[in-house]
Amino acid sequence: MRTEYDATVIGAGLLGCFTARELVRYGLHTIVLEQREDVCTGISRANSAIVYTGCDTKPGTIKTEMCVRANRGFDTLCRELGVRFSRCGSLMICFGPCGLGVLEKKYAQGLENGVQGLRMIGPEETYDLEPNLAPGVRAALYAEGTGTVLPWELGCAAAENAAANGAEFRFCSRVLGISRREGGYTVSTDTENIRTRCVINCAGLFADEVQELLFAPSVRLFPKRGDYYVLDTKAEGFISHVISHEPEDKKKDGGFDKGGDKGLTLVPTVEGNILVGPSNMPTDSKRLGSTERDGFELLDRRISEVMPGLPMRHMIRSFSSLRPNPFQVELAGGEYVRNGKSISNFTIAEPAGDASFLSFIGIKTPGMTCAQELGRYAAEKAAAYLGAKEDPRFDPVRPAPVRTADLSVAERDALIKDRPDYGRIVCRCRGVSEGEMIDAIHSKPGAVTVDGIKRRTGAGGGRCQGGFCSQKVIELLARERRCLPEEIMKDGPGSYILTGGETDA
Ligand SMILES: Cc1cc2nc3c(=O)[nH]c(=O)nc-3n(C[C@H](O)[C@H](O)[C@H](O)COP(=O)(O)OP(=O)(O)OC[C@H]3O[C@@H](n4cnc5c(N)ncnc54)[C@H](O)[C@@H]3O)c2cc1C
Predict the structure, then answer these.
(1) What tens digit of pLDDT does each residue of 217-271 get?
(2) Rounded to whole angstroms, how far apart are CA atoms 182 and 263?
(3) Residue 350 lies in a domain
(4) What CATH number does the domain containing 128 carry?
(5) 358 and 379 both lie in a single domain
(6) How far is CA 375 from CA 70, 207, 411, in A?
(7) Which residue's C-alpha comes closest to atom 14 of ligand 1?
(8) I need a labelling partner for 121 at 20 to 30 A (CA). Which of 26, 73, 246, 442 fits?
(9) 210 lines ligand 1 (CB under 6 A)
(10) What's the whole-model pTM score?
(11) Which atom of ligand 1 is nearest to 366's Cα?
(12) Residues 270 and 127 grouped into a single domain
């Protein structure tokens, strides 16, 4: 196994996958080290799925520049990567003077940022576009360029394309140490030492801790939790734009260490679900996944203000995410403490003083929208530092996987003649076939868990939430990976479905 690389990417979330894809564009020998068993198991599997236009952020910042550019290029990117993308447009609504002030500021900001297709609209046009909104809407900022994409679909596609162009992915490889050596670094995981000329730290919520394996603390991450509801496709059509709400009571219940301070966002996803959230609650933990009642109480209150008729009876799932809020830190009384307000711009650190070590610390929204731009930024820096030129053999195209549910009967018939497994439907809610699951397992990097199959194919994401198909998915994973069903996990370390705990198998 190779142990010397030009570039080592730490973390296989959206940023790590896109950074790897951009690094191999320069022909750089690249490895991605990921502590988990698959790509997109961190923040990148749990966000609002919105492709932003760039009207929400301050003019002149790198975040704004990247967002505006990324939004314009998103159709091309998704075509290249075979990823579904809906440019559904968005409405930011308000019910009173405070919200109106914010909308007008964002409108002016958007124009200054060069965002096209922005308009302030009145109540009549707003209700024409979204008739189910609560009465009393004062105005809306309409942005026709806003879109939505499935974050894990985007991340898996970027990873596959990076791998097809030569990037190596090593999973279950947690980075525990980094040291300097002549001409670069040694990055140590639980199992090996990697010698590398450059390091790109894309460790998400843990990017501060990874940087501190070698450098003194400068920026640390203080998470806040965002809870979400997911509504079944039975609610499809209830909204047709991304809707966000600028509340009147924002200042009253705001503040970093308090809950609230956030309006509601509603997103019609490309799979036909409606995403409702996120809350914005304080937390002491960097552990992803747990939802809390206080977050849902906030969402319920906001739903009653914004869209009281939202068919919550179709709620099929809830989940949460964590925002990696970056703060400058300083030494006080022997401890590093938070200093000032949370940094709102993208924090891209070069703690070694050159491009040999680059850290993305605290990349919040719109990090998914900007994942390719951020990856490109890191790769350009690394390539200039290493004297690498673009490799003409790089192929940006990753063919879209087969999605039998999207095919006509004639297309399905033709497909099944060659591969009968595309005719065996395993997930009935989403119409996902055995063949698609087998493709997901054998893609590179491929699915190794039940949730890995879900991220790649959608199986288990429908109304029954895997109640009917999980058993078959476990059998398929075990058969294709040549292991025992007892060894199959739902989603990462310890989540053995059949035994419920650690196994010696
Ligand atoms: C609530 C919420 C909503 C959002 N909504 C949007 C949105 O609508 N639109 C948008 O554009 N952006 C949105 N974002 C931002 C976007 O989701 C993130 O910027 C993006 O997913 C960041 O991905 P990442 O790769 O930095 O982190 P992650 O996906 O968390 O990836 C980091 C990876 O590093 C790995 N790792 C950590 N430590 C180590 C180690 N020591 N060794 C090896 N691996 C390690 C982790 O296991 C993980 O897989 C949202 C974010 C949040 C929190």
Answers:
(1) 999 999 999 999 999 999 999 999 999 999 988 755 446 666 656 889 999 999 9
(2) 51
(3) yes
(4) 3.30.9.10
(5) yes
(6) 12, 15, 37
(7) 365
(8) 73
(9) yes
(10) 0.96
(11) 11
(12) yes
